[in-house]
Amino acid sequence: MWLALSLGCYKWYQSQPSNPVWARTYGNEDVRDLSGEDCDAPNSNKYISYRIWSQWYIEVRMGTSDALLAQLNLRPTLLERIIGAQGKDHKLVKINEAVKKGERSKFSIRSDGTLLYEHRVCVPNDGELRKEILEEAHCTTYTMHPGSTKMYRNLREHFWWDGMKNDIAQFVARCLTCQQVKIEHQRPSGLLQPLSIPQWKWEQISMDFVSGLPRTRKDHDSIWVIVDRLTKSAHFLAVKTTYSLSRLARLFVDEIVRLHGAPVSILSDRDPRFTSRFWPRLHQAMGTRLSFSTAFHPQSDGQTERTIQTLEDMLRACVLNFQGSWEEHLPLIEFAYNNSFHASIGMAPYEALYGRKCRSPVCWDEVGESRLVGPEIIQITSEKIRLIRERIQTAQSRQKSYADRRRRDLEFIVGDHVFLKVKPVEGNYEIWA
After folding, report:
1. 88: DSSP letter
2. Which residues of the chain have pLDDT under 50?
3. Helices 245-252 and 278-285 sit at what angle, rounded to 10 degrees?
4. How far is CA 377 from CA 348, 372, 382, in A?
5. Are both 80-181 and 204-362+370-400 of the same fold?
């Protein structure tokens, strides 16, 4: 019954917008059921308003119980406000006068005095009035937050104002509900920001873990990957996921500090083994400034992630071809990785680290050492470091240009509010720095 009444009122208004609509129903309880709302006990002179649409109100005048009759009067309150505001809009007033002179073919005036544009109601330049129309067409239960295109298509059938499409797009873009629940169908925000290039070997390193590997005879089930960000040389250390923090720290000193000294900064993801209290204290005592990547954003540590991909490929190939445990092949896998050409530096990591590639069985003709005096070695090493830094800079620029093609530039300022979409960090946050 409610649907029939609503549809009947709407159809009647389309054909006779200036005439009231009268409906007849039997029983006060039936009338209250139509509203879906609670109401006070009616009396003979009381009016109860039930809202159907934003611009229409049904006024129910409850009669006596003997009559069992309710009279419903449909009132276009929003339309009345629009008509009143049209008389205060200087632009629409001029158009109205031109229409009366027959100078505006696309505009017309209805019998009730409403100014129309191609049979659509002209909404005056009234911010509150337009906002009410936009909210009704976007935020109500029978519209359910449509996109700007759908919302524009729906509204343009009934309303018109100058810049309507742009106003709708801005309104939808500012809707907090839409920002929270809708999926973005556009390129990710923010251009690629490459990390600074280190000045010297093993000065800045990155690290991560490869876990979930088959357990070996020595009870190892993970690989600790530690990479120099300048020379791209890496160490692959077999470990257990249950190693304590103190044991990992001891292993780090034995295998890394022993060979290369203490690094200046360490880039890692937010693994609990790096974010605990022990690691900052250890690195602070060694003069290391622990530099964590952004939470849940492992692309910041992309170098280690890429090294891990190569390591996993080499592990699969080695185990497939030579059988046995992965730990047995790990030392030679590390050698093969460091002695192979690396595109970003234009040479093998060992060549960048030691000034030349390490001898392998395939290089039988390279017998003996080059006789270089101290100054020549220093000059060659410095020249290689300069060349490596230039090649890394070129590689970063190339990678940035490729990555930025799939991204869009977006700048924030201090005080802006942003939504974080990744759990468990989610909600509305303010930018502080």
Report:
1. T
2. 24-75, 294-298, 364, 367, 433
3. 30
4. 18, 6, 8
5. no
Gap between the Cα atoms of 313 and 206, Å rounded: 20
Calpha distance 240→41 (Å, rounded): 75
Going from the C-alpha of 290 to that of each of 250, 274, 419, the distances in angstroms are: 17, 9, 27
Query: Which residues lie closer than 8 Å to 99 by C-beta, 6 or more apart?
Result: 107, 108, 109, 115
β-strand partners of 267: 206, 291
271 is written with which tokens? 């693994």
pLDDT in tens, 245-264: 778 888 888 888 888 888 87
Q: Which fold has domain 80-181?
A: Endonuclease III; domain 1 (1.10.340)
How do residues 259-297 score in pLDDT, each as one tens digit? 888 887 777 765 555 555 656 666 666 666 655 554 444
Both tokens of residue 233?
């040389």
pLDDT tens-digit series, residues 383-418: 666 776 676 677 667 766 767 777 777 777 888 777
Q: Give the separation between CA 241 and CA 245, rounded to whole angstroms.
A: 11
Q: Which two tokens stand for residue 72?
A: 């419903």
Lookup: tokens for 199: 């000045």
Continuous H helices in 143-243? 148-155, 164-173, 176-181
| Domain edges within the chain | 2-75, 80-181, 204-362+370-400
Phi, psi of 172 (to 5 degrees): -65, -40
The reply to whether CATH 2.160.10.10 applies to domain 204-362+370-400 is no
